[in-house]
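Q: Could you write out the predicted structure for this multi-component system? I'm mainly interested in how the pieces pack against one another.
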Amino acid sequence: MPDGRIPGRNFLARFQRGAAAHTGLVRALAGHIFMSASAYFPFSSGKRSIRRPSLLAIISYLVVAFFAFLAIYPLFLVLLRLVYSDGRFDPAPLLLMVTQPDVGRLLFNTIVVVGASSLLALIIGSIMAWINERTDAGMGLLSEALPLVPFLLPPIAGAIGWVLLLSDRAGLLNALFRKMLLPLGIEMKSGPFNIYSWTGLIFVYTVYAIPYVYLLVSAGLRNVDSSLEEQSRICGNGLWKTMWLVTIPAVRPSLGAALLLLVWFGFALYSVPAVIGTGAQIEVLPVRLVNLLSFTYPPETAQAIGLGMIVVLIVGGAWLLQTRILAGGRHATVGGKGHRMSRIELGRWRWAARSVVLAYILLAAVLPMIGLMLVTLNGFWTPNIKWGALSLATFREVLFEDAVTVTSLKNSILLGIIGATIGMAAAAIISLFVRERGRGVGRVVDGLIKLPASISTIVLAVGFVLAFSGPPFGLNGTFLILLLAYLALYLPQGSVAADAAAAQVGNELTEASSISGAGPTRTLLRVSLPLMLAGLVAGWALLFVRMIGDLTASAILAGTNNPVVGFRILEVYQGGSFATLAALSTVLTLVSAAIVVLMLVVTRRSDRSKTAIRAGG
Amino acid sequence: MLAVSDEASLTSQAASRPILQVKGLTKFFVRSDKSVVPAVDNVDMEVHAGEFVVLLGPSGCGKTTLLRCIGGLEKPDRGTILIEGKPVYSSQQGISLLPEDRHLGMVFQSYALWPHMSVFDNVAYPLRARKTPRTEIAGRVREALTMVGIPELEKQYPSQMSGGQQQRVALARAIVSRSRLILFDEPLSNVDAKVREQLREELVEMQRKLNFAAVYVTHDQEEAMALAHRIAALRKGKVAQIGAPRDLYLTPQSLYVANFVGKANALTGKVIGTQDGLIAVATAAGQLNGVPGISGLEAGNSVSVVFRPERCSLSIDPSPGGNALQTVLEASRFMGSYTQHTLRTSAGTLIVHTVEETNFTAGQQLWLCGEFDSFCVLPSE
């Protein structure tokens, strides 16, 4: 079955599906974008025969019940706390939503940063997607792997990297620019750039927002038959007019989904503004929210909950807006059989187009990584690197000597391994359960488990404080509360990966197994699971990377008793050496990248032996 | 000749117990607007040992749903299904066997080969699932693969094979456990025309040799003709007519079957009377006599006179002793094995196929002539 695509494509598609659909909400709405590409049956669930209640079914019910509780209960407490606390009616949090000091400024800051970066990301991400899907300037695996950037270099590491590069005085890149300007007779003591500014903050948000847009718009473009565009050009419209009249309307659902994703992502992003926003004295909602809970004593829970509700309202508003975009329904994913993608030949513009993509990779991954490495190896942060005296001393300190850091690394990796394993196993069970139960019960369960994290990870993290810190659970400062929070926060992403993996197993494949005389357990073990395996591995890597790089839950729930990398990075940032900070970020990045690359290798190998059969659906 | 002897041998088997009996089977589907439609509507049918029955109909007629009900992949709402005399589904007795307990073979439209298993493992799967002794497995898998003509491919993976080869593997998997009933869900619709024809011939040969009973779903009437002992023409979940291919073609019982099985001309008219088993019909183009498709047609009934394009001839003068219609030739088109003529009459346009090439010219007046028994009178729809 010559596919004409690179072998890694299947894997990437799987991984990206998981990576992109950050939220169940988005998935539900943009589901057709992903699903239409794979073997998916509209009547899948209705066509199954009833089965005996097996051990499998009992386990499924238990898993579903446990995760539903984990997701719903904290959210329920947040809502309850709005108007009720200490056994009586108390609308303080509700009032604090609007009455707490400078809430207007907070909101304004957040909206400006998220709005500006989303707009930029929509434009740049769409252009890059178009270049890769519709022109001959694609760069194979390099372009395909672009959405993996946030997984290779976690946002916190990227933010710190850019601080090291573009800080007003000490920024390495700034120093380089000043050196280059000197021969031109321009002498500067600081600048020319300053990361601690509105521009700097918006810049880093944009860098991390682009992959989501790229991913969704690419998927959208892939589903629109290029003959639609060719038809328009034959009718006499030029390239640009065609793009305006045909291409953009056709990918409007993808753009809508991307916008929702960016708002959701922006209003919960803590790591980037915690580093850059704080330095620039631009405070945004998520940072204030975490500060109220973690760095204020006693914690201002009521205020935090008030702010959380604002986040919920805004994400809800974005969701409504997106449904409006989708409501027309006239932009159904079009395409007959034999989807042939013809590519526009760019000629001499080809390398110009490629340089856009290359520049992005340079900015998003390569430069910050260089910054982190240099400062680590140099031992302290200075624009004057002593090239002869670079040493691994800081790495040694972080990896072996500094007790708290070592513990936090150990904790994070352990949490990542345990969390990703439990998470993916549960996601696979839930996803098979949902498929089996079909539209009614299945949909409800699916929604229940995915909804809370879809509303906002930061609000869910707040809910965890209310639910599990104090009595009756008393999990404050334990490893367990972090594990539970990570599971609740990132299970939706694991679920999306597992759903995509399950959707790859065409119904006829399991039916053929039953007809052959195999019972449900044999079918599961011999057919469904082996076929899902590659997708589950990809999902595992995704969860692992998310969990070890987590800052949202860690900032709120971790402490000196249960330190994790995210928490330790914040601690060091507030009062430690930048070399340690850089070293810790580098280690985090290397572990993440290693896992992602390892998974790439594993899943590509398995893809090679069993390229998905097109007709499999 | 073959067809005739097949039919004869089947008549003798008819006394034996059928392999498959379907009685009063009904399955409803709930549409998204909550309306309920019967996808399978009170279907009765029997399939005997060694018999090849094709379920034929356009998409949405319920043929696949019926097949899936037989396989246990779908749960009917009413009726009974017996396989080898044992009920596998009975709404009255509350029986509904799972697919794995029905001991069937099935070939899916998409082949449904497991991509992570080699050809050998794919074919061995039903044997392993049914706990066949380990020592027997290899021999039986090879036997099945030889039977379908690909003994050399056992180590390959499905993704490394052509569509035709994949189809053969799917077939081998269906026959390997020697089920007496094998279901086929449009298995040839994904392979290209040349391979399809070849596979069809091989399938007929194999079925006659192994003598399993087959229920085969297709929307392609040519395929149905080539494969079937009997064809069940389905319409909106009901069996419109069931019978040997030549019966469906020559004596269709409804306009629907006439139109779906082969090409047909139809002229509407009213029954004037009956004589010597023939029915006289007045049409706008003149009187036509034909055999009744169903009994009970009476004078005054609205009917259609149906005839096949190749079962009549064209001539400058009317030939006696049959029907003759005055027509004007609109166009003749050379089609290779026949020539197709489009003719205008006062009752509509008709098509006639002639084997020999003709030198008629467009606009010429011609007589369309044919034996009375080539014309079939059916109630209007």
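A: Regarding packing and overall arrangement: The radius of gyration of chain B is 24 Å.
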